[in-house]
Design goal:
Length: 469
């Protein structure tokens, strides 16, 4: 999947761009005093009060001379997310972001400039942003755009092989070593991935890569990333109703997320080693599809009774978690659009965080709040673990109780993580049901900016510790 250019002009002279002045209510009086009298009168007549997302275009001799954006109390990048399609099409702008950083403003502008136009022309061109140099905000926005594009692509155009191709293309772009497993080797090495994908005419694939930063060594931190890549989920024999199936092209969102995070880490050339695996499958119905109450064997050697064929994501993930955790990474992260129960608990905006290490969990929550990419922690509640017991196998893929579905799904996955490995599991929605500033309707990237910030922060702490020693 090829990159699309971001609507920016890098290094353009500031004089070529019109100015958006961001302001909070407390700073409005000072701003009005600094503007020409005609523009101050215009803002007075418009009733501008600097509330969040309030935008007023300022008139000039040759049309729009500038703009003023209210921030209210917002501090996240989305404060600037409504600009790209509210300012005149294809016009060039720079932002004076008040008390927020230029990076925050740039990222917010670009998050809002996204539109999925691969199959249909965009409604109009966004405005363009003048930025002084390439920055982390540009890299973050490009990764988010990539994730959104993957999630938004119709499933007939993005099957298991296509998703594996996207992983391979990303690997080659950054000099990583790609891997791809299918056929008999998949049946042998990833039996639960194979079991889920067996019902589709589009064969399952495990794809991934290994990468090492230019300043990394064999002793550098190893970060393992695992993603659920169910390109379409019918539910299998436990068939979803039509309404539940409508958005199931997004069920590969976890794979898209770890690819987006890997892109950010590799583009920054962080001194780490990466190990990435995605399970690319389609959960379909056929004579060869798994049935309710089948028993399958996992890579870990545990047997699993299929209590519900629509709980296929944890089957796809468990073999990948077994493989990656056995490499004893310094951090193991998995991303998956795993349960509706997480959405019932937290709604669409918050990613559900499960973690077996309190220090890593607190650090991730703090990083997410700092970059405006929030998460909420849910518990790995040990006493619910027995709800996964089976009379005919080592465990069932679903709980015996109709409660705590996100928790029991996480407990299922925990069975396959090697002891002692710090593990973060994110249960994502990966979708915006309706458009809001910076968050267009459709596929969404959640928590990858938080994870990137977490990893950068940890590396900086380690570097400081080495200096002190």
């Amino acid at each position: 999947m090829n990159d699309r250019p971001l609507p920016v002009e890098i290094g353009a002279p500031e004089s070529a761009a019109r100015v958006v002045r961001a302001v909070r209510p407390a700073g409005l009086e000072a701003l009005l005093a600094s503007l020409p009298a005609a523009q101050t009168a215009w803002l007075h007549d418009a009733g501008f009060s600097a509330k969040a997302q309030e935008l007023v275009l300022l008139p000039g001799e040759h049309g729009v001379a500038g703009a003023v954006l209210g921030l209210g109390t917002e501090t996240a990048p989305h404060a600037f997310g409504g600009l790209a399609f509210a300012l005149p099409a294809d016009s060039l702008w720079r932002i004076e972001p008040a008390d927020l950083s230029p990076e925050t403003a740039t990222l917010g502008f670009l998050l809002g400039a996204y539109a999925y136009d691969r199959l249909h022309p965009a409604r109009r061109a966004p405005a363009r942003l003048c930025v002084p140099a390439s920055s982390e905000a540009l890299a973050s926005a490009a990764a988010v755009w990539m994730v959104r594009d993957l999630v938004n692509t119709p499933s007939n155009l993005l099957g298991p092989s296509d998703l594996a191709d996207a992983a391979e293309a990303l690997a080659r772009r950054y000099g990583a070593e790609p891997m791809r497993v299918a056929g008999a080797a998949l049946e042998e090495g990833y039996p639960t991935v194979a079991a889920v994908g067996r019902g589709s005419v589009r064969a399952p694939v495990v794809a991934g890569f290994s990468w090492q930063g230019s300043k990394a060594t064999s002793a550098s931190p190893l970060i393992a990333l695992v993603g659920k890549g169910v390109c379409f989920d019918s539910g299998g024999y436990d068939l979803k109703p039509p309404a539940g199936m409508l958005r199931m092209k997004k069920d590969m969102g976890g794979a898209a997320h770890v690819l987006g995070l890997a892109r950010m880490l590799m583009q920054a050339d962080l001194p780490v080693r990466l190990m990435l695996r995605i399970g690319c499958v389609e959960n379909a119905i056929s004579g060869s599809a798994i049935h309710p109450l089948d028993v399958v064997k996992t890579r870990r050697g545990l047997t699993v009774e299929i209590g519900n064929t629509d709980a296929e994501g944890r089957l796809v993930m468990c073999d990948l978690l077994a493989e990656t955790s056995d490499a004893h990474p310094d951090l193991l992260v998995d991303c998956a659009t795993l349960t509706g129960a997480a959405r019932v608990a937290l709604g669409p905006e918050l990613a559900a965080l499960f973690c077996n290490d309190d220090a890593w969990a607190e650090a991730l929550l703090g990083a997410g709040n700092a970059v405006g990419d929030p998460l909420w922690r849910l518990p790995l509640w040990d006493s619910y673990d027995s709800w996964l017991d089976s009379n005919v196998a080592d465990l069932n893929n679903v709980s015996s109780k109709p409660m705590a579905g996100a928790v029991t799904a996480a407990l299922y996955l925990r069975r396959f993580v090697a002891p002692g490995v710090p593990w973060i599991h994110l249960d994502l929605y990966a979708w915006n049901d309706s458009a809001r500033p910076g968050r267009p309707e459709g596929g969404e990237a959640q928590a990858i900016r938080a994870l990137h910030a977490l990893i950068v922060n940890k590396i900086n702490v380690m570097a400081e510790s080495d200096i002190l020693r």
